[in-house]
Specification:
By secondary structure, the chain is α/β, with parallel strands linked by helices. It binds adenosine-5'-triphosphate.
Length: about 300
């Protein structure tokens, strides 16, 4: 578990991080969202003992990061994918870290395989890696010690769409096996696809936090079918109200499972079935980016 209590970082008269508190629980992916300059990296650096806080505390499993005996075996960290020696190959980089952490060298091959760096790529010097390859190696590095906590700052930066999809799967799987993930991004969509908790920061302060369902909000289910009339009748018979949208879909004030079961029982084919969100998190995020705290842009 990651626990952040009243964490504050002041640079001169500027509060980069201002009284920030949140927790990341095992089995969850926490999306740490905010526009550029909001304070995400500074918060993560304080959690990892790289930046001393002006006030407040951050612990991993109730201990400050710097007090962990062999931190790589407990916490996988990826804060800056480019922060590796440019003259070492990808394989040398991981092998050296494996030795330092006391990890079996066979794990290096497992990880290189997992992150999709092939034999030719692992023999190349890190200085010649693309940003996407650096992120893949960075994730391999973070996972090398088989930690139960991951702290990743903008890990999808530079990855292509296939790479982003792949990384989501790795992180989801890690959390589903009981791991704790803290994942920062300035791109809402990237985090929305994988996180089950969100912490939204703007101007150094937390402006929203909570589980996915609370922040995204849900106002029922949208459903499209080949036979809207028969589905409407089946839903009404099951005491579920129905309204028709202009594009021919139906919206229903019930969850997707209820709607799916009614349709299945009536033998009705569905073309689309998904929750309708009220955009709570998106509104919050856009209000932050519009207020001049930063811009949501790709880097
Ligand atoms: N070493 C430093 N000295 C002075 N100011 C700093 C320092 N590091 C960060 N800041 C300032 O603190 C604020 C928060 O920066 P931080 O890098 O934590 O934001 P961020 O949310 O990670 O943004 P991005 O998405 O652009 O990486 C910014 O105003 C930044 O300029």
């Amino acid at each position: 578990m990651i626990s952040v209590e009243h964490l504050t970082k002041r640079y001169g008269r500027h509060n980069a991080v201002d009284d920030v508190s949140f927790r990341c629980e095992p089995g969850t992916v926490t999306g740490f969202l905010g526009p550029n300059g909001a304070g995400k990296s500074t918060t993560m650096r304080m959690i990892c003992g790289l930046t001393p806080p002006t006030a407040g505390t951050a612990t991993v499993d109730d201990r400050p990061y710097r007090q962990l005996a062999n931190p790589g075996r407990e916490v996988g960290v990826l804060l800056d994918a480019s922060a590796q020696h440019p003259g070492r190959t990808g394989r040398e980089t991981l092998t050296l870290s494996a030795r330092l952490m006391g990890v079996s060298p066979t794990r290096v091959d497992e990880l290189l395989d997992l992150v999709g760096l092939d034999a030719a790529a692992t023999r190349r010097r890190f200085g010649g890696y693309s940003l996407g390859m650096r992120q893949r190696l960075g994730l391999a590095h973070a996972l090398l010690g088989d930690p139960h906590v991951l702290i990743l700052d903008e890990p999808a930066n530079g990855l292509d769409p296939e790479g982003i999809f792949w990384m989501r799967g790795v992180l989801r799987d890690f959390a589903d096996r009981g791991g704790t993930v803290l994942l920062s991004s300035h791109l809402l969509r990237e985090v929305e696809a994988v996180a089950d908790h969100f912490v939204v920061i703007g101007g150094g302060r937390i402006v929203g936090a909570g589980p996915r369902e609370d922040l995204l909000g849900s106002s029922g289910t949208r459903v499209r079918t080949l036979d809207p009339q028969r589905l409407t009748a089946a839903l009404l018979a099951a005491d579920v109200a129905v309204s028709r949208t202009t594009d021919g879909a139906l919206t229903v004030p019930a969850d997707a499972e209820t709607v799916g079961r009614v349709a299945a029982a009536a033998g009705i084919v569905l073309l689309e079935l998904r929750p309708v969100t009220d955009g709570g998190l998106e509104r919050l995020f856009l209000s932050l980016t519009a207020s001049g705290s930063g811009q949501e842009t790709s880097r």
